[in-house]
Structures are given as structure tokens and as C-alpha cells.
């Protein structure tokens, strides 16, 4: 897929992937580090323990992130739909294996974004860094809420 086609598609997610806040050269660079990947229902995007070099934004579909124990039991950590990020901790941690398994619930298309390419863009752009930190902060708060709900669950 051509870089311009990827940019146009990514532009439809402007509220979550605001590439328009970037200077033209950085838009081109970021688009050059993106790949549109398509997955079937129940297809794995990545496995727990895999090396991490990319993060993802859902273009269409639904992705669940699971933790698996040694007995094969699954714990649902999160669901990600159109415009939501997953695997984004790779931006902040280098050479750390994936802490969960990402699986498509329905046929899904995601933007796969290279860590090193996106880091270069983030280093040069305060507004882009701020946006990513805000997104990460929202995700942390959401997960903290889930932990709180589990902790106070009357079983």
C-alpha cells in the first residue's frame, strides 16, 4: 500500500491518531513506518512473550488482549475497537517482551507502527509526545479502575 493511501486512511482517525499536528516531513516519516495489516476472526496479532517492535491502532474491527497462564487459562485484560491503541508500551520500553496476547475478535484491520520510526517523530514534536502521554495516562486510569473493580468484587 502506498504511503499516501496509508496517510489518507490514518487521517480518518484524526481524533486518536492526529497526524495533522505534525509537520509534513514527520507525517511522511510516520506514514513510512506504518503498515496496514488485516486479520481474520480469532487470528493472533502477537503472542505473550514475543519481542516487541511495533505498536498498533485499530482501523476497523475488535482486538482483545489476554493474559495466559501455564494451564492455558485466559484472563481478558482489554478490548480495543476503532481508533484505539494497543501494544503501545513498546514506545516507552525497548526490548521488552509482550506481556499479553492480542487476538482479533472479528475480522480486523490495524495500523502497525514501527517503534523506532515513531520514536524519531515523537522526539521532534512536543505536541505528538503530549498526545501519546495523554493516551497512555487514560489507559492507565482505565486499568486502575478495572483493578479496583476486581479488588472490591463481592465473591
Verbal overview:
The model has no long low-confidence stretch (mean pLDDT 86). It contains four helices and eight strands. Strands 1-8-3-6 form a four-stranded antiparallel sheet. A four-stranded antiparallel sheet has the order 2-7-4-5, with no helix packed on it. The radius of gyration is 16 Å and the shape is globular. The longest helix is centred in the C-terminal third of the chain and has 26 residues, at 126-151. It is 35% helix and 27% strand. It has helices at 3-11, 24-32, 115-124, 126-151; strands spanning 34-39, 44-46, 54-60, 63-68, 74-80, 85-86, 101-104, 108-114.
Calculate the terminal CA-CA distance, rounded to whole Å.
51 Å
Percent helix, as a range, is 25-40%
Per DSSP, the total helix count is: 4
Order of helices and strands: HHEEEEEEEEHH
As a whole number of angstroms, the C-alpha radius of gyration is 16 Å
Quote the beta fraction.
25-35%
Structural class, by secondary structure, is alpha+beta
Summarize this, please?
The chain has 4 helices and 8 strands. The protein has helices at 3-11, 24-32, 115-124, 126-151, and strands at 34-39, 44-46, 54-60, 63-68, 74-80, 85-86, 101-104, 108-114. It has a 4-stranded antiparallel beta sheet with strand order 1-8-3-6. Strands 2-7-4-5 form a 4-stranded antiparallel beta sheet, with no helix packed on it.
Amino acid at each position: 500500500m502506498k504511503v499516501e493511501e496509508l496517510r489518507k486512511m490514518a487521517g480518518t482517525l484524526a481524533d486518536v491518531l492526529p497526524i495533522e499536528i505534525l509537520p509534513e516531513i514527520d507525517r511522511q516519516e510516520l506514514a513510512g513506518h506504518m503498515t496496514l495489516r488485516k486479520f481474520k476472526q480469532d487470528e493472533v496479532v502477537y503472542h505473550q512473550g514475543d519481542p516487541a517492535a511495533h505498536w498498533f491502532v485499530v482501523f476497523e474491527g475488535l482486538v482483545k488482549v489476554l493474559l495466559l497462564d501455564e494451564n492455558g487459562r485466559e484472563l481478558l485484560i482489554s478490548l480495543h475497537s476503532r481508533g484505539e491503541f494497543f501494544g503501545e508500551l513498546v514506545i516507552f520500553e525497548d526490548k521488552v517482551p509482550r506481556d499479553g496476547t492480542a487476538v482479533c475478535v472479528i475480522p480486523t484491520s490495524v495500523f502497525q507502527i514501527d517503534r523506532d520510526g515513531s520514536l524519531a517523530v515523537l522526539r521532534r514534536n512536543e505536541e505528538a509526545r503530549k498526545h501519546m502521554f495523554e493516551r497512555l495516562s487514560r489507559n492507565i486510569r482505565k486499568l486502575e479502575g478495572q483493578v479496583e473493580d476486581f479488588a472490591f468484587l463481592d465473591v
